[in-house]
Amino acid sequence: MLGDDEDMFESVAWETPSAGYTTAEVPTPTGPGFKQSTDPEDTTEERGPHDPKWEGFLVSSVQDPIKELAETKDAYVSYLVSAKTNLSIFSTQNPTVRRRFQDFVFLREHLVKDFPACVVPPLPDKHRFEYVTGDRFSPEFLERRRQDLDLFLKRLSRHPTLQRSTLVRAFFESTEWHVTMHQHVAHPPGPEPGPGVLDNISDTLLNAFAKLRKPDERFLAMRDGVDKSAEGLHSSERIWNRLRARTSDGNPESGEDLTSDYHDLAVAVQGLGFLESGITDPLNHFSNTLLEYSALLRHQWTEKTTATTDPFLVQLRSLIAYSHAHRAVLRLRDQKQLDFEELSNYLSGVTLERDRLSAVIAGRAGSTGLGLSAYLRDRVDALRGADDDRSRVERMKKLDSKIKELQEAVTTAHETSDAFSDETLKEQAIFQRAKEAEMKEMLGSLADGQIEMYKSSIEEWERIIPILQRIRVDV
């Protein structure tokens, strides 16, 4: 949430590349989530009713964080947002603007409201000081936030519905973003939800703790898959942290990790060289190789933050947060179904009461056999002097009016629940594609970094082999 002393609508002036900023070269979209055929006659892939379909591509990047109003108390950071697209909704194929963190927050909050059935990717908290030790204007903090914002926009850009929204287009293109925000708040897309039957029903009837009477097996399996995926990501995070601690805990003085063991071994070999006068030089070279390898491991795990270790954890945690956003959509879908079931049950109760009154008036039956509640209602009406046919007729009219209203509400709730379920099935396919693309990139980067580290290690060990081979052993 924004502070009271901060203006949500304070905009950053739009800058063109000629103002000293250079537009990043955005790569051609490839991989899962970017297979975006716009040809309606393309039959290379059979599409199901819930398969996503893109109308074009949108590839984005967030770069060049700059501290604005640096010498004032209102200092903030702006980021260069650029994109490449062939979507018809955009007025240019290469939009470029500068945006601040609050602009990203506004974009996400209103996309969640405008597209409740879509899995809108999460944003990092405004103050996440676990990023680094230091202030929010430090280079380390800004780079980590830039990475998070870049991933947020890439996820939006991959989404076939969100990439075509007018708010996303304005975010990439608008030169008067503060005006766009005001207009969006004043005139949100779609009709304002008015008070309906659900608002007039007691909270004891519709509540967050009620369970679905007829849970859909498709969504039960979907939720189970999301939970297991998140559990696997959490396990990977714990194991990776343990691996980091065992290899190098970042404290050279602790002596409790693998790099310290290699350092201690190097010292021992060097001491052995003083005792073995005939092979002192080779042993010293071997000791130096052990020290180099120890330093290489420590650099890989504690200092090389642009390679594999730290970014791997960051993206792992971001995938966990993304899974939580997906689960929130599944919970909302369940709530839509629950609304329909509870309204249907309420309608049945009202209809039963109307039928009971009709039977009493017609003289065909009393409250006997219609349950304890009907009997008690008759007794209360008798005590209040309201047990005559006239009062029953008035109540029947009110019940008929309520039944008509409830029937309309049940129909609307049924249509809403079905439509939300269809959209949720589409979102599952979209989310799965995006997750596969990110996991491929994340694990590929991890593998590349490990290969680079072990190639350097091989070079170090290969240099020592000829020196060791020159040791003469007389038999």
Distinctive features:
Substrate Binding Domain Of Dnak, Chain:A, Domain 2; endosome; mainly alpha; single chain; disordered N terminus; autophagy
Reported CATH architecture of the largest domain = Up-down Bundle
Distance between the termini: 79 Å
Largest sheet: 3 strands, antiparallel
CATH topology of the largest domain: Substrate Binding Domain Of Dnak, Chain:A, Domain 2
Structural class: mainly alpha
What top-tier CATH class of the largest domain fits best? Mainly Alpha
Low-confidence stretches: 1-45, 129-133, 202-206, 304-309, 365-369
With strands numbered from the N-terminus, the spatial order across the biggest sheet is 1-2-3
Number of strands: 3
Radius of gyration: 33 Å
InterPro entries: AH/BAR_dom_sf (IPR027267), PX_dom (IPR001683), PX_dom_sf (IPR036871)
Subcellular location: Cytoplasm; Endosome membrane
Membrane topology: Peripheral membrane protein
GO biological process, one term: autophagy of mitochondrion
Describe the structure.
The chain is 58% helix and 5% strand. With 475 residues, the chain is mainly alpha-helical. It folds into two domains: 17-192, Phox-like domain (PX Domain); 200-475, Substrate Binding Domain Of Dnak, Chain:A, Domain 2 (Up-down Bundle), CATH 1.20.1270.60. The model is unreliable at 1-45, 129-133, 202-206, 304-309 and 365-369 (pLDDT under 50). It comes from Phellinidium pouzarii. This is Sorting nexin-4. Residues 57-179 form the PX domain.
